[in-house]
Amino acid sequence: MQQYWVVGGEYRDTKFQVPVGEREQWLGPYPSYDDAKAEWARRAWKTVDEAHTRYRIEKIDQDEVPPCTD
Question: What's the pTM value of the predicted model, to 2 decimals?
Fold first, then answer.
């Protein structure tokens, strides 16, 4: 079963690697890509003038084995 998450927030710089507060926001899960895209669009347009803010859509398949983090 696939789930979609909107991930992001404010970052320290425009490399978008280190979030302010050290944690990204994870919003969801959404049952479909279209639902996640609607939330992404709402957040992206709300922060369009903020150069250090970015959001993306992440897809997670709960039936797959998670990648190794060793």
Answer: 0.83
